[in-house]
Amino acid sequence: MGLDASGEIAYLWGVSTPVSSTSACLRGRCPRCGEGDIFASWLQFAPACRACGLDLSRHDTGDGAAYLTICVVGGLITVLATALEILVAPPYWLHAVLWLPMVILGSILFLHYGKAWLLAASYRHHRLGDTT
Questions:
Q1: 7 phi and psi angles, rounded to 5 deg
Q2: What are the extents of the domains in the chain?
Q3: CB atoms < 10 A from the CB of 124, how many?
Q4: How far apart are CA 32 and CA 119, in angstroms?
Q5: Distance between CA 24 and CA 33 in Å, rounded?
Q6: CA 87, CA 38: separation in Å to the nearest integer?
Q7: Residue 75: CA atoms inside 13 Å, Cβ hemisphere, count?
Q8: Burial of 84 (0-12, 13-18, 19+ CB in 10 A)
Q9: Going along the chain, which residue ranges are E strands?
Q10: Range list of β-strands (E), 8-121
């Protein structure tokens, strides 16, 4: 951390107003400047931020986003499916028709935001190697 010209703490290497990791994640924006898009496609990172030039090519979320997705989406669907079975006991084909699309859509959506959150967390905790 350092002080900028106004004397305020610059949390993110020279950015006087820190970008919220949550805000950057939900909007798919750069964790440094909050402006540039971090995704080239739905699940692939852009090589660099178009606004500030932060190098994103070295960042890899590994299996972290997939693990979070499995835990959150899998846990949520399991609880909902179990509750529906206990309360209503619908036929099994209805479970398949109801939960399969929810698992697929939920996984794709959560994986996108999970990757963005992990990138923002990596930047926040100085893991992207940005020293400017």
A1: 90, 0
A2: 2-124
A3: 18
A4: 11
A5: 9
A6: 43
A7: 7
A8: middle
A9: 2-3, 9-10
A10: 9-10
- 64-87 vs 92-124: helix crossing angle, rounded to 10: 150
Q: How far is CA 87 from CA 40, 82, 90, 91, 99, in A?
A: 44, 9, 9, 12, 16
Q: pLDDT of 29-56, one tens digit each?
A: 988 888 888 999 988 899 998 888 888 8
The DSSP output letter for 90 is -
Cα distance between residue 89 and residue 132, in whole Å = 59
Q: What is the pLDDT of residue 58?
A: 78
**Using one digit for the tens of pLDDT, what is the confidence trace for 56-72?**
887 777 788 899 999 99
Global model pTM greater than 0.85: no
Is the per-residue pLDDT at 89 higher than 90? yes
DSSP state of 62: T
Going by the DSSP 8-state scheme, the letter that residue 79 receives in this structure is H
